[in-house]
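Q: A reviewer asked whether we had any structural model of the full assembly, not just the individual parts. We don't, so I'm hoping you can provide one. Inputs are below.
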Amino acid sequence: MGRDAGRLSLILLMTPFLLWIGLLIILPQLGIGYVSLREKISYDEFSFGLKNYVDFVSEPVYRNTLFRTAWMSILVTILALIVGFPVAYYIAKIARQKSRAALFLLCLIPLWVSDLVRAYGWIVLLRETGVISSTLVDLGIINQPVEMLYNDATVVMGLVYTVVLFMIVPLTSTLQGMDDALLEAGYNLGGSRFTVFRRIIVPYAMPGIVSGCIITFMLTAGSYLTPVLLGGKNSSWFTEQIYNQFITRYNWEAGATFGVTLLVFTSFVVWLGLKLTGQSLATTVAKD
Amino acid sequence: MYDLSCDRVTKAFGKFVAVDQVSLDIPSGSFFSILGPSGCGKTTLMRMIAGFETPSAGDIRIKGESVLALPPNRRNVKMVFQHLALFPMMNVGENIAYGLQCRGEKKAEIPAKVRRVLERVGLPGVEEKQIGQLSGGQKQRIAIARCMVLEPDVLLLDEPLGALDLKLREHMKIELKQLQHQFETTFLYITHDQSEALVMSDRVAVMNAGRFEQIGTPRELYDDPVSGFVAGFVGDANILAGKVADIRGDEVLVELEGGGGRIAARRSDGSAVGSAVEVFVRPEAMRIGAATTEASLAGTVDSLLFNGANSRILVKARGGQLIEVADPGQSGSLAPGAAVTLTFETRRARAFARRAG
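A: Here is a predicted structure for the entire assembly that you could use as a starting point for your response.
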């Protein structure tokens, strides 16, 4: 009886999760994988093969877009870490107990507004006739309006702004688990601020740093709205290529190939990052 | 010269004075304890010595030099934290080497020093172990080794035995004392456990509400407490409340509350006739036997508490007070309900003015 009830509750608990992961993640991925292996011969006539992938590799524009996206995503991840770490450290270690929850909530507030609206916010600020440009003209600092949209710096800044939160959350929770006595012991034994940071705080926060970086990198590489709206035609973001293949050119086979490639490539970058920093998923993200 | 001196050190947090004009001098190579209940300010005092708090007033000197201007990482006092604070991301060897590296010692000399200190604490060859693989007592010794490898002027220990189980704690008390002898370093130990303080220390300061009540050897504190707080906090004591009925020289005659009769006790402070006092009598000062004139109490045996060498007889006095008598030799002949008379030497009973609360 007890065992049956236990099994029933396990089934009830697992069902929504399995449905979600099965119907919305695994099934579509299988579908995409299937489409990517389909070679179009003529109308409604297909054969199977790796031709789509060969096409992708042999076309430098596609390849370079992927590498560019990866590089910029890594840059965004590093910047988000640099911006997010002090914020997380302040919330977890310096702020008073009372204000911690409020500060954390403050970090979450941007999530209440959709990505799209936030991207338009940046546009309002940065475009040639936008707030910053016209203010600078009014103040006489520059003599004609400047266009601050549609360049890489803007795209990177906008992406950092969008994803930094996902860096702060895991970092804060890791740092909160750190006993202040560890820091004090670090100083007591003769460590300078820098030594304590390098040898105690960073190694302790490593699980948070790694999980934050993985989330941030994956989100950035897969983002679409921010690079397209802030970077315009120049952004050459890889997701834009996928969109073009599916929607503009109606070439589902190529689009699916790009999708699979992005997933495999970003997973490879994450794996490489873990290898290079000597971490593993078991000791970081899945750490209890 | 003193290894560590505090001169009227005061620390106030807003209106609350945590440490109030505390002065102490610790001679080289001695084991000094600060004993007090939690919240008495002992941890704050230790954190000021380590440099994590700045005193509101007063001076702290190490080997005669004021250290108030030095940040924590430049003071040659090392600290064993309450929960040890061993670095979990480093192995044992790295934990110990950390301080040496911070001091900029030559890379080639560090492993030898680490090895030597591990031998001295009786854990040779554990450099490669992770912190999580050590037992409680081993962690303790590593925490001490991590400090001692730096040859500090003073080692501060902040209730490091608190987290251990009873058996290990008893064992570590003796071991700590031996380590202190071996290293010949000045230890400043803070604790709320009087037996730790009594067993290990050369001198003990009893702290209460931010002030030192008494500084002395463990025996002085036990036999010659200067206040009711010290008499009650250090060691076990039966506390009998009453009023001073008469004063004769250095003795007072106390009328016990609840009609328990009169007992004589040593007059230990300026309590006048009629003032409320408490009489402290150690369990081992009590005897069961024939009544003497004034240092005796009549009562009945309430229960026998067997605890090996620490067995007690619980006697209910006529005034209703429960009195512990340490007398394992006599308990065999007694049964609960038996009428007994307790006697004690007057000089071993002390009367202090009653404490507030």
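A: Points you may want to mention in the reply: The two ends of chain B are 41 Å apart (CA to CA). Helices of chain B lie at 42-50, 92-102, 110-120, 136-148, 166-183, 194-200, 218-223, 228-233.
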